[in-house]
Design goal:
44% helix; 7-stranded parallel β-sheet; disordered C terminus; 416 residues; single chain; alpha/beta; 13 strands; 6-stranded parallel β-sheet
Length: 416
């Protein structure tokens, strides 16, 4: 039995949190034991883990404060749990978790979920100054060398880890996030029609759906700015944005100022993203940078024709652009042109959606991700060398051969 302590900043809403929980629910309990330590809140996913018999510890850390207290408490948790491995994810969990594991002589694994410290980080985000980025990188760089290995969710993320954190190439492996394919099932046609009617989409065409937190990274301002050109060709077009965040008021004002306020719909946090995807005509993804882009991959797995910004790593997620229409980032005109092209070619859009569904479901099955992580845990716990290329192949073989009993996750927002 290999015991893994997972350190994460919270168990609230988020893509990293959902991925951790859904992976642990599919873990082989005969070979692995798991404990989760959240630095702050455990709302939502904490109850899911507790219900599955996975112990959850919360430290109630206040952001920007009590760093030393949190480090002491993390060390105490490690001494109490006595794991063979500490697995961290997200910035402060990485910095403090790696440090505590080092001090307690336990090997650690870090999962990198974003293209860190790249120039795109600062675009449209004046609050993220070069000084803040440099200070964050100093701590990250200093502690990253203590990880036995680093898991990157895409090759683009791996390249950033090598370039900006100095992780040796042989110690960083690519294990993509996995999809809960069971929850990505379209509802019956009558329910889809009812949803379209309830949202005022019955007479709209095309209905474009965007899913993501309302923050600078997600680039919704460019999707909104694309609407005047789309409306010139399709006067009944509608852009629906599912997600919440600090930019909502600003985005609403951008829509009003552009004269498209009646054609842009802010849905807030939603519990029914698969149903929204089924009801929409197209998926529009406008992010400036991403790690894995779970919302994009889920839309493809639902067979939705997609126009996406070509952020670093987008080619990996779209089979080199064969399963989605790639356009330059931060380019409203290019986004509009992609939408107009697909909306005007139903056969091409349908073919693109079919290719996307086949690719995403075959490539990003959660069982494969879980099996690859378990193979990594076994290697690190035994002290064997980590070989990146064959872990994902191992995950494919094991994931396809074994159906694990999985507990469905409760639906909440989708804005990862």
């Amino acid at each position: 039995m290999i015991h893994v302590l997972h350190v994460i900043e919270s168990l609230g809403i988020g893509g990293a949190e959902r991925q951790l929980v859904s992976t642990l629910l599919r873990s082989d309990r005969h070979r692995f034991a798991h404990t989760v330590c959240a630095l702050t809140v455990v709302e939502h996913f904490g109850d899911v883990l507790a219900g599955a018999g996975i112990p959850v510890i919360v430290l109630n850390r206040r952001p920007r404060r009590e760093t030393w207290r949190t480090l002491r408490e993390l060390r105490a948790v490690i001494r109490s749990v006595r794991p063979q491995i500490v697995h961290t994810s997200l910035y402060w969990s990485d910095v403090l978790g790696r440090t505590a594991a080092r001090m307690e002589h336990v090997p650690s694994i870090t999962t990198m979920v974003n293209t860190i410290y790249s120039p795109e980080w600062r675009r449209d985000n004046p609050r993220l100054t070069p000084r803040k980025i440099a200070m964050a990188r100093v701590l990250d760089l200093a502690t990253a060398r203590w990880s036995a290995c680093v898991v990157a969710v895409t090759g683009a993320v791996r390249a950033c880890g090598i370039k900006y954190l100095g992780v040796p190439p042989h110690r960083i492996v690519v294990i993509p996030r996995g999809l809960e394919l069971g929850r990505l099932t379209p509802p019956p046609a009558e329910q889809t029609d009812a949803l379209r009617a309830s949202l005022g989409w019955a007479g709209a065409h095309p209905v474009m759906l965007n899913v993501g937190r309302l923050v600078p990274q997600k680039g919704q301002r460019y999707a909104v700015a694309a609407m005047p050109r789309v409306l010139e060709r399709y006067p009944r077009a509608r852009l629906a944005i599912a997600g919440e965040g600090p930019l909502r008021t600003e985005l609403e004002e951008i829509a009003r100022a552009a004269g498209v306020g009646d054609h842009v719909q802010f849905l807030g946090e939603r519990t029914d993203v698969p149903a929204l995807l089924a009801a929409a005509d197209l998926f529009v993804f406008s992010s400036l940078f991403e790690g894995f882009a779970g919302a994009l991959v889920e839309a493809m797995a639902m067979g939705k024709p997609t126009v996406t910004a070509a952020f670093a790593g987008a080619d990996e997620l779209t089979d080199g652009g064969r399963t989605a229409r790639l356009v330059p980032t931060a380019d409203a005109d290019a986004l509009a042109a992609g939408v107009i092209e697909l909306a005007g070619n139903p056969a091409e859009a349908a073919s693109l959606g079919e290719a996307a569904e086949s690719w995403a479901r075959s490539r990003f099955d959660l069982r494969r991700t879980a099996a690859a992580l378990e193979a990594l845990y076994e290697r690190v716990a035994s002290g064997r060398p980590v070989v990146g290329d064959d872990l994902w192949a191992t995950g494919a073989r094991v994931g396809n051969a074994m159906e694990r009993i999985a507990r469905p996750l409760p639906e909440r927002e989708h804005g990862s």
